[in-house]
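PROTEIN DATA CARD
Card holder: DUF2526 domain-containing protein
Chain length: 77
Origin: Superficieibacter electus
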Amino acid sequence: MPHLDEVRTRVDAAIAEDVITHMNELLVELSDDASLAREDRYAQQQRLRNAIAHHGHQHKEDREARREHLTKGGTIL
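Structure generated from the sequence above:
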């Protein structure tokens, strides 16, 4: 399997796993990967960055929805 295909598979797996720590570790690892062309490395890192950003937005929305649900009709006890 060519290296780029292997990297794509790893990025897909990290995104599917949805664990920020693992995505960040892979981002750092890709920064040091001299086997990839600059454009290919950037594209895979950008996929990870987008997934991390989406995860953060989703977490914020979930937290706000939970707070709204808990405070419906009053205050949090």
